[in-house]
Specification:
With 247 residues, this protein is of the alpha/beta class. The protein is built from eight helices and 13 strands. Helix 2 packs parallel to helix 3 (93-100) and helix 5 packs across helix 7.
């Protein structure tokens, strides 16, 4: 990644550079400065959907605090080798995950083909033998994958996921279709014995957990043996964890 000069950084501090704006005006990608470092942001109707640093530590330091929390989860729990991410956006988290888990592989499900194209062009995303992008609705993907597993007729970890992450939003709220009891039960069927489901949720305000989050965790307590709620730094996001392993 090209290193910016001091002049370029100073200019971005005062005048963010617009790299892309969709014809309908919903999506915008800009370069600017945050935390004294150059960043690239993707916003949808002004809501920050994806972001990365643009300096030499970009592949190690997530810009968004909830992604830092997900990275720490990847490092804390062993065996999270086969991962599924629902909601790709700018596709920034897969790179952090693969750096944390040397043997890891990740499938990313993103419902909008345009978002995948933007991730490739502006956020340095590329598929490989370790990462695969699938264009599909998240809830539909889970339903179809659960059917495939059921058709195998074998209750084993084969083809199940060790780490399932829900990071799909409708505006500023987590996708309702993903948080339904039916979809969460299907996600459980796809979770390996020691696997973990992680759901990114927005708080009502810093540190104030939303009722949607409480309801979701209550459902998960009826499905998985253990759940946990992590408040992310700056407290705008929280991560619900659910697993049959000790958390």
């Amino acid at each position: 990644m090209q290193k910016l000069t001091m002049f370029q950084k100073l200019r971005l501090s005062f005048v963010p550079q617009i790299l892309y704006r969709s014809e309908d005006g919903h999506i915008e990608i800009t370069d600017s400065m945050e935390n004294g470092r150059p960043v690239r942001l993707l916003t949808y109707d002004g809501i920050r959907e994806s972001g990365i640093y643009l300096d030499e530590r970009s592949d190690r330091d997530p810009l968004f605090y909830y992604m830092q929390t997900l990275k720490e989860i990847s490092l804390k729990y062993d065996g999270l080798n086969r991962a599924l991410l629902i909601g790709g956006g700018g596709m920034s988290f897969p790179g952090y995950f693969l750096n944390c888990v040397p043997d890891g592989q990740m499938t990313v499900v993103e419902k909008d083909q345009k978002m995948v194209e933007l991730a490739i062009k502006y956020f340095f995303f590329e598929e490989s033998d370790r990462i695969k992008a699938v264009v599909d609705d998240g809830a539909a993907f889970i339903a179809n994958k659960a059917k495939e597993l059921a058709a195998c007729g074998v209750d084993s970890n084969y083809n199940k996921y060790d780490f399932i992450i829900f990071d799909a939003f409708d505006g500023n709220k987590a996708s309702k279709s993903l948080l339904s009891e039916g979809t969460l039960k299907l996600a459980y069927q796809m979770t390996s014995d020691d696997g973990i489901l992680a759901i990114n949720m927005l708080n009502e305000k810093p540190g104030v957990v939303s009722m949607q989050t409480h309801f979701c965790q209550a459902i998960l307590r009826q499905i998985y043996r253990n759940t946990s709620l992590i408040i992310c730094p700056q407290k705008w996001n929280c991560i619900i964890l659910a697993s049959d392993r000790k958390l």
